[in-house]
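User: Could you check the structure of this?
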Amino acid sequence: WRDYPMDILIKNGTLVTFDDQHTVIEDAAIAIQGDKIAALGSTSELEAGFSHLPTLDARGKAILPGFIKVP
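Assistant: Sure, the predicted structure tokens are below.
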């Protein structure tokens, strides 16, 4: 996956985090720049800050970031 970095905003999904509180955010977005997660949050917040990125509409879908930890 590191050989295929991309810049994209995935928006309008249900974000399921894997933090200690198992946070779930509705109408959420994730901004990816290169091979890193640049930001997580509400779609409206991230659209304002990352409007220059191409987008993928995840409406009706789950967004599951961070399945792997990179040192």
